Amino acid sequence: MKYCILAMVAFSLAACSPAQKSDENLNGPVWVQLPVTNGEKYSLSPVEILSLKNLKRLSGLAAQFFIDPAVENGELSGRSPDFKYIRADNDVVVPTDSLSLQLASVYMHMEKLKILDESAGAGSINKWPRKVAVNAIYSAPGEGRLFNNALYSGQIDAMVFVPYIQDDLPVMVNAGVIGHEHFHSLFYKTVIVPLGDKYPEAQKATVHDEQAQLEQMGAAKEPKSALETEEDRDLYHAVVLRGLNEGLADVWGWIYSGDVDFVHRSIPQEKITRRIDLPLQRLSSATEIRNYVNLYASSGQTMGVAYSLGNQFARALKTLAEFKTEQKLAATTEAGDKSADETQSESENKPKNKEKDKQAIKQMRLETAKMIIKSLPMIKDKVASLGPSEMLSPAVVLEAFASQWSKSGELNYELCSEMMKLTPAEDEPQITSCRTLLDKP
Amino acid sequence: MRFILASFFLLLSLPTMAAEVESLPAKVKQESSRNWSLLAVIGGDYRAEETSEGYLEGQNYMNYALGFGYKPMLFVLESSTATKTTGNNTLNVETTYTDYMLWTYYRPAEIRIFPAFAVEAFMGGGLGIYKLDVDTTLSGTTTSNSSDGKLTGGLAVGLRPVIDPIWLSIEVRVRAGEDFKPNPSLSGLARIGLHF
User: Which terminus of chain B is less hemmed in, N or C, by CB atoms within 10 Å?
Assistant: First the structure.
């Protein structure tokens, strides 16, 4: 009998060890070995995570996970993760299975995106910790169960990951994709929700809000032969707004990750359609988009038009951001050349210049993020103020940028000329901020 | 840790249990002529473990053991190992668990079922260390890490037919370790080998 008692005592004492306890109540930063990118490739590296409170459950100020999620009465529910890890050399935490690695990666990205939001002036838009649903079972209308993707749902205000079953970089590790999806939450709260009166149906709860919005705005309805009715106009605006949302999200993904081809890393079939560093001749005009929508509506393919338009927006904004940075760098170099010691050789200056360029590119990305955040209310106002027969011009986003540069005194003739190159002739009058500059002899 | 210490005390107490064998009924008293024996076995250890998603799943461990018996005790030095790979070709994590344990079994009696067939029940406790080696591969580049050795312990009950020199046994174990999930956890071990 005494042995039985001894054994029972042993097991009753076995529940927790001091090491486990301390990891359940973290008081400081923790270093975790995770995949990180320099914009060109991914490698494993220890990353400092500052806001984790419970390592065992991967919970903290940046993200809250819901494994195998469900939505009941509009509320997201799901299990907390059980993070599997070891502590290796120098106390670096190393995840011991793939899901743990991916969850920690998402947490790290959410923490960094929070910092980006704050730096870009978007710190107050979202509530933190962000909700993240993992292993979600989601069926897209007419497409069956969705795999290898991520979504943002405005109705439950959560980033949703469906299972990744391909052999490429898992979406939950892809910095660009996570940045992209995170941006949808900013767009949703800054543009879509305030436009609620204009599109009241957009507020209904569904798993994939944007799809639902398009449907509710008319995208999935039987098409008309021409975009003449109010319904047709709604369909056009749904496509342009979706294009803006996707395009700006792609730019956000690039700003965050430095990767111009992030979609392709996880979804190789998107290689050509989603790169944002390809040269762009110009944006499609409102008339062209209307024609595309009209053409593809009959086959229910308007989503493709939206994504294609989104890619145009992304490429246009990246082109402008780079053009402006080159202008800035050229001006700095010119000023530097004048003051530089003439005895310094070119080879001595090279590493310095390279470092300067890197800093400039980083700064450019942050400046672009700030511009985007400031553009969102302007885009929303523009959509809200459209008259019954007006169509939103795709050049609205260029004007939003031009207007901000004009206010800060950074708009110049060359920048306006570059902007006009990207604007279809019929939409040129939309770029009102450049009119005065370009009219000058 | 407290569980490990408690297990240790249990192990220390096992030899005293041997003295109690004299009080067992005559029919279950031991009948062997020689007191000492040697054991060499391999086995499969099926352990219930919790995944990151929170589900219980079975994991197979290979078990290798050498032992020395001195009736009614059996001392077994064993190692268990299992490798689990998760992820895909681009990003995967291969984790190898290895433990080294010393088990002390108490074999109170052989129970004769038929005149020519007896079974032996046994119970015991084990202590040892375990470690995890983790190879994380990203785009063909592998980074390896190892944990420090951590304490583990367990209790077991088992049964075997007495068909020496063949050793066949099954046992149920309850094991604990610093980062086990669930902790303690259940496992079932089947062994085959030589006992002479």
Answer: C
Element (H, E) at B19: helix B2-19
Minimal C-alpha gap between A264 and chain B (Å): 14
Over residues A356-365, the mean pLDDT reads 82
- Flag if A97 and B2 touch (Cβ within 8 Å): no
Mark yes or no for CB contact A14/B3 under 8 Å.
Answer: yes
Beta-strand pair A130-134/B141-146: unpaired
N-terminal to C-terminal alpha carbon distance within chain A: 104
Inspect the interface and report whether the beta carbons of A81 and B136 lie closer than 8 Å: no
Predicted local confidence at residue A20, as pLDDT: 53
ipTM of the complex: 0.83
> In this predicted structure, what is the pLDDT of residue A327?
83
CA–CA gap between residue A161 and residue A173 (Å, rounded): 11
For chain A, percent of residues with pLDDT exceeding 90: 48
C-alpha pair distances (Å), B35 with each of A85, A146, B20, B73, B78: 46, 66, 17, 10, 22
Query: Which DSSP letter does residue A226 get?
Result: S
Query: Exposed, middle or buried: residue B100 (CB in 10 Å: 0-12, 13-18, 19+)?
Result: middle
Closest-CA distance, B95 to chain A, in angstroms, reads: 6
User: In sequence order, what are the residues at sequence separation of 6 or more whose Cβ sits closer than 8 angstroms to the Cβ of residue A250?
Assistant: A180, A263, A274, A276, A310, A311, A313, A314
pLDDT confidence of residue A219: 39
What DSSP assignment string belongs to A276-335?
S-S----PPPHHHHHHHHHHHHTTT-HHHHHHHHHHHHHHHHHHHHHHHHHHHHHHHHHH
Distance from C-alpha of A174 to C-alpha of A168, rounded to nearest angstrom? 10
Greatest mean pLDDT among A299-303, A403-407, B146-150 lies in B146-150
How close B178 gets to chain A, by Cα (Å)? Answer: 6
Among the partner residues B86, B141, B153, nearest to A97 by beta-carbon distance: B86
Structure confidence by residue, pLDDT tens digits, A102-128: 999 999 999 999 999 999 999 999 999
pLDDT, tens digit (0-9, with 9 covering 90-100), for B116-154: 899 999 999 999 999 999 999 999 999 999 999 999 999
Count of other CB atoms within 10 angstroms of residue A196: 11
- Residues in B 15-44 with any Cβ partner in A closer than 8 A: 17
What pLDDT sits at residue A23? 85
A21 near B CB under 8 A: no
The answer, yes or no, to whether residue A39 has pLDDT greater than 60, is yes
Phi and psi, residue A383, nearest 5°: -65, -40
Token output for B5: 């210490």
pLDDT of residue B139: 95
Q: What's the helix, strand, coil split of chain A in %, to 5?
A: 55, 15, 30
Look at B174 and A11 and tell me if their CB atoms are within 8 Å: yes
Q: What is the pTM of this model?
A: 0.85
Give the residue from B53, B84, B96, B97 with the most A CB atoms within 10 Å of its CB, the best one to mutate.
B53
